[in-house]
Amino acid sequence: MKPPPQFIFLDAGNVLVSFDYTKGFRQIAAETGVSHNEVEDFYTSENFQPRLENGDLHWHEVHSAFCNHFSSDISFELFGRAAGNIFTLKLEMIPVLASLQRNHFRFGLLSNSCQPHWDYLCNSRYSLLPHAFQTIVLSHKVFVGKPDKAIYHYAQKKVGVPAHRIFFCDDLTCNVDAARTVGWDAEIFTTAQQLIRDLNDRGVCLGM
User: What are the structural domain ranges in the chain?
Assistant: First the structure.
């Protein structure tokens, strides 16, 4: 059995919440009268998402570019809500988080995220965000995203524990591989039950 981790980092997208970018494009289209395909082409052709996640681009700039390109007068607030409301909470993860809290394990969030998505998650019905997590590291706030090693080093420094005593779970192989490269103990997320087994194997017994 591996030694119990001193800190547990979880990803957000496809671990705590599922998401659908197409839903955001449809909602922006419905609010502006621009076709769904035009919205999607505009967003993807400009490579907005990775630039937003790395903090290289601000959502105000995307809003301005959209309004100029399509001669739209959609408000900044409505534009953000339409783009951000793309998430569905993974209900099977709620007992896992509750058990981590109940058993006083230290855990946090390490996520590639952008402002409208994070704002929606924090200001919507998902009361677990951000309050359930002791430490939150977001790519758009630290100006680097997974799988860049710098974000793992930043997160490790923030929690103050040795690399090999951090457990990390993410749905993308490239992000898990990068975590292992910097010395973290990491596993691919598939299901809540598999995460429970992975934690149990490391002495993190959740009683589930």
Answer: 7-18+88-201, 21-84
Question: What's the CATH class of domain 7-18+88-201?
Answer: alpha beta
In order of 7, 80, 90, 145, the CA distances from 110 in angstroms are: 12, 22, 17, 9
| Paired tokens of 30 | 């419905």
Q: Give residue 79's identity as a one-letter amino acid code.
A: F
User: Tokens 């924090």 belong to which residue?
Assistant: 122
Residue 111: pLDDT over 70: yes
Residues 6 or more apart whose Cβ sits within 8 Å of residue 109:
9, 10, 11, 12, 16, 129, 130, 133, 135, 136, 137, 138
Tell me if the pTM is above 0.70. Answer: yes
Strands 7-10 and 166-170: parallel
Q: Which residue has the tokens 């570019």?
A: 65
Residue 168: what are its φ and ψ, rounded to 5°?
-135, 140
Q: Report residue 37 as tokens.
A: 């395909």
| Pairing relationship of beta strands 17-19 and 87-89 according to DSSP bridges | antiparallel
